[in-house]
Amino acid sequence: MERYYQPEIECASREQIRAWQNERLVPTVKRVYENVPYYRHLMEEKGVTPDDIRSIDDLHKLPFLTKEDLRQAYPYGLLAVPLRDCVRIQSTSGTTGRRVVAFYTQHDIDLWDECCARSIVAAGGTNEDVVHVCYGYGLFTGGPGLNGGSHKVGSLTLPMSSGNTDRQIQFMCDLGSTILCCTPSYAAYLAESIIERGLRDQIKLKAGIFGAEAWSEEMRQDIQNKLGIKAYDIYGLTEISGPGVSFECSDQHGMHINEDHFIPEIIDPNTGEVLPEGSVGELVFTCITKDAFPLLRYRTRDICVLHYAQCPCGRTHVRMSKPMGRSDDMLIVKGVNVFPSQIETVLLNKGYPANYQIVVSRENNSDKLEVQVEMTPEMFSDNLAKVSAREKELVDALKAMLGIYAIVKLVAPKSISRSEGKAVRVIDKRNLY
Ligand code: DLL
Description:
- By secondary structure, the chain is an alpha/beta fold.
- It is built from twelve helices and 21 strands.
- The N and C termini lie far apart (about 60 Å).
């Protein structure tokens, strides 16, 4: 049995990690300044030259990049190598505006595979495993990323892509899949479907690597119990490479950021000021090893905290908390900040399945927040009085969590459409007016 494990990197001393970051940051900034006119202009506007960046202590002097910059520079404006050196593009699902396109040289693909391999190993993966990848393949980074990581580990890789739940379950049983990779919402749906078909005893899964969307601790427990596995979180974004920017270890307390490749910072999303250790704020990444698309100080919009305390697993790379939401995902309802994750926590705590939808609308100049929640089949067989008592209980619990009133509608099992990729949790009708 072989593990693709690099303790000399993943368990290096903090001094060593800092030394790598210093020695990789300085030439990266110089290269970007020379090869990416778009970023050179941003630096010039800020009065910064590559000579001002001598170590990571100078990082804060560099200008930020945002998704808007990527859209402005679409498609080739942030490319740092000649196009002939690139071998791949991936792209975000971008529902509004221009898509974001990221470029990769073979070296970039190799380092991305390495990051994903680390996540599979942290979830217990070896060359004896059967890794079942049902993230989408194609422009989305989920499928290709975990696929590459699984190859690097030497596991048997099932490139299932998303969809066709019957086929997923059949292959899972026939080929003895041991590690499942997909979005947490699809994992919950698969779990439900496996139990319904009475096939729980026929699956050999031991672990799941779930990410690409927010999911709560309660949802983790639910998936773990239903499938009898350990569920690991994985985080990433197309702009920075894809999945594997950070990943969870067996301690399940935050995701180790691959700091030999990406330098994280936490900033105040309103002022851009770098916040002290332990603060909640927006996560920013600087790529220090990539060839084609080495974004510097890229604002992710994800809100989280970094933990530098030693991890029991032995890895020394900093851990990020689960993103608490996105600064651009946060709903402002009646002037109050509402994160979908807060609503999910309440629902799962009260024993509801993770199938819900949040609908925000505006009536008579006032915001209306409605939460539609699926009942379990047992709840559905309750009489009307019991159902309205349940609705009242949820209204009170949501009020306690959010500080505002939400209408609760309990709906029949399976009436909210399932997603095979990222779940659509929020429908904000206010944008349509
Ligand atoms: O979602 C990459 C990915 C694929 C990550 C598979 C993990 C597994 P994008 O489509 O560019 O890339 O979306 C990136 O998704 O900024 C977060 O807001 C959100 N996100 C990703 N992972 C997590 C996670 C992929 N574990 C955006 N928890 C990011 C919460 C996540 N949100």
